[in-house]
Amino acid sequence: MDSLHSEPSPDDSGSSNEGNPFLELFKILCPGRRPKDGMCLQMAECTPDPRTIKTHLPFSLLPSSMLDTSKVRIRLGAHE
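^ that's the sequence the OP posted. Answer follows.
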């Protein structure tokens, strides 16, 4: 079977991700954590304060406690 279309095996070490700068940063910021458990959330948890987290999620999907514990900046583009 063509290697581009083959499914990774369950014991695949993820060698295809070698050299991925996002994965390398994850390994530095979150030693001992697994990327399969959600890299973005774990990186946000491991990043030292103060943190800046950019999201395109609607405000209604963010935790309601965010207004009490964070500075929230909402920026709308010119097309909105």
